[in-house]
Description:
single chain, mainly alpha, two-stranded antiparallel sheet, 6% strand, elongated
Amino acid sequence: MPEPIxxxxxxxxxxxxxxxxxxxxxxxxxxxxxxxxLVWWIYPGSTIDRRMPTSPPVYPAxxxxxxxxxDMRTFLAAELARLNSGGWDDKSKGLGHIPIDEAMRRVAASxxxxxxx
Length: 117
């Protein structure tokens, strides 16, 4: 089969005429101005300054950890002291706590109700 003969490549011979550009540019600017005026007409109060008349409140700076490892050691020491001690949480309500070792011995001796054996 013979190859088809293609016509020579074509290109646009002229750009946009100057007359069209001179008409389009002002038309775009007029349209832009008309849209701005339309928005001002639809929303007349949008240019009112509604900022707070006083200065905003001043908040304290955040308290950042300077030594997180020491903070963690202090926290763990306090938790271990609570786990290994006994005392009242609320004596008027009869709420107290016992050392964890004693609590585990009591649970091991008496078991947990409804716990599978």
